[in-house]
# Entry
Amino acid sequence: MRLATLADVDALYPLGYAAYHEARYSAHPFDETKARQLSLRAVSDRERQAVIVAERDGQLVGYCWGMAGEAMFSRAILGTIASIYVQPAARNGFAAVKLLHAFRNWARIKGCVEIHLNVTTGIRLARTDRFLRRLGFQQTGGNYILGLVGRSPASSQ
# Structure
């Protein structure tokens, strides 16, 4: 586990692409240019953002991208995990656990009082809930989507 560098952006892109297409977001067109720009900004902004990568045999197999910032109605600093992904072939290990622990350590250093992680992928929701609870996360609500164009958003459990 380590913080990503600019040299990792090209290797991060395929992971982000895979995460996008595995989740419910694949119903929307993927924008390669926007994804690359987002990766560059996230990796470059070490003060407010962390992109932590998991490597296996010299190859990136996962990432956790999050940020630290003030709460909406308070000066409290919160950590927010925007995206976490581990390639299917690497999910039999502890990569996701290590990524979350690494982000937690980064968030503590940044002065965060808590970490928020919203599950919006729509896949394996019950399994994800059990996993996060085992790591000490508490459920505080839910995520709801209202489709406005075409079909309703899909969800698989």
